[in-house]
Design goal:
This protein is α/β, with parallel strands linked by helices and 206 residues long. It has a single domain, classed as Rossmann fold, CATH 3.40.50.300. 40% of the residues lie in helices and 22% in strands. The strands form two sheets. The protein has a seven-stranded mixed beta sheet, sandwiched between helices. Strands 1-2 form a two-stranded antiparallel sheet. Strand 1 (6-9) and strand 2 form a beta hairpin.
């Protein structure tokens, strides 16, 4: 059986509750990390959620199919959910952080009712900067995600395309994720700002 907490990228292992920021320069870097992240979760019997604009979703589908993934079966079964950024973040043209947080937790609970042990979320945020939200609200939301999933069977990777995301959103991302992936390098994030004093007591990544 695959280790249910393994990230699936080289020898890196994370734990449930980890909130990770990934900054990429190109599609190949993105897929080198995100494709193993999703495929390992699928093999481990976890719910896997991909959230992105359509071009990114189409590119992910192609990569997963080329890697041998049976997309029709995975999507029909509900184990793989591919959701647009509109439906997840911007329904009715509004970004409401609490609504988005509740949607994420609802996906987790639905998955657990269907027998999935946990949930991996991969969100491509290349749409940021084209309208709502503003950067201050987004940074507050990302901090809330870090706190809300800390004790949940969720591993979430927020993907920031350096070519498309404005710099101030990437800076906000670095302030709000304890772990960062830069290209294909993974490390503790020295720019992370703990949202609460006791959060600094959390165990170090092994």
């Amino acid at each position: 059986m695959p280790d249910p907490t393994a990230f699936g990228f080289r020898d890196i292992t994370f734990s449930w509750g980890d909130h990770i920021c990934a900054v990429f320069e190109n599609h190949d870097q993105q897929m080198a990390v995100m494709l193993p992240f999703i495929t390992h979760g699928l093999r481990a019997g976890q719910l896997c959620v991909w959230i992105s604009p359509r071009p990114s979703a189409d590119a992910f589908r192609r990569a997963l199919s080329q890697a041998g993934g049976d997309l029709p079966t995975l999507e029909a079964s509900g184990q793989l959910a591919i959701i647009s950024e509109i439906d997840f973040y911007l329904r009715d043209g509004l970004f409401l952080p609490e609504r988005t947080l509740e949607l994420g937790l609802t996906l987790l609970e639905d998955g657990r009712r269907h027998g999935y042990s946990g949930m991996r979320v991969a969100a491509d945020l290349s749409w940021l900067g084209g309208g709502p939200p503003n950067v201050d609200l987004w940074e507050k939301y990302e901090h809330e995600v870090t706190e809300r999933i800390a004790e949940a069977p969720i591993v979430a990777v927020c993907q920031y395309d350096h070519r498309r995301c404005p710099g101030h959103f990437i800076l906000a991302a670095l302030h709000t994720h304890p772990i960062v992936i830069l290209g294909e390098t993974v490390c503790r994030n020295p720019f992370f700002i703990y949202p609460s004093a006791d959060a600094a007591e959390r165990p170090e990544l092994m």
